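Re: that chain you flagged

S.,

Sorry for the slow reply, it's been a week of failed gels. I finally had a moment to sit down with the sequence you sent. For the record, here it is as I used it:
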Amino acid sequence: MEPATQREVEETVLEILRNTDMNKMTEFKVRTMAAEKLGIDLSGQEPKRFVRKVVESFLLSKEQEEQQVTVAAADEENKEVEQEEEGGEGEEEEKKPAISAKEYDDEGDLIICRLSNKRRVTLQDFRGKTLVSIREYYERDGKQLPTSKGISLTAEQWSAFSKAVPAIEEAIEKMESRLR
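Prediction finished late last night. Pasting the structure tokens below so you have them in one place:
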């Protein structure tokens, strides 16, 4: 993608993100709206990766802003409490939000964690749906490629699974205690 086109796409995506309800927006919708507005095709791998990075950058900056506002409000509240308790001014500690660097695979999917050298958990956008994918990978020509061994869960399926984790852990502990 040409640098001028990238700038245009980035500006359009950011404009869409600033003027939308983030609880109802998906990356797919953002990309589709930007493609329609600009009259260009953004369905290829390179445009998808570029739009994903712009969206992630926007969300990260929003998260940082919210954390800074929250930290500032908490600091102000703590300062007021300290002043009331001590009758004077308390020392103010500077708190900075901890933001971890995000890692993406060759398809532009967000790598959540690596379970082993050949297994990982990724977050991907597939046909407008967000999927949590737990999959085995193999290496070919220096690239990590997904195998068919694995599972992709919708957000609803992931939620159901994550709620069941405590029961699964309890069952594992019971089985292990019987084996001892």
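What I noticed first: Residues 103-179 form a domain with the Transcriptional Co-activator pc4; Chain A fold (CATH 2.30.31.10).

Talk soon,
D.
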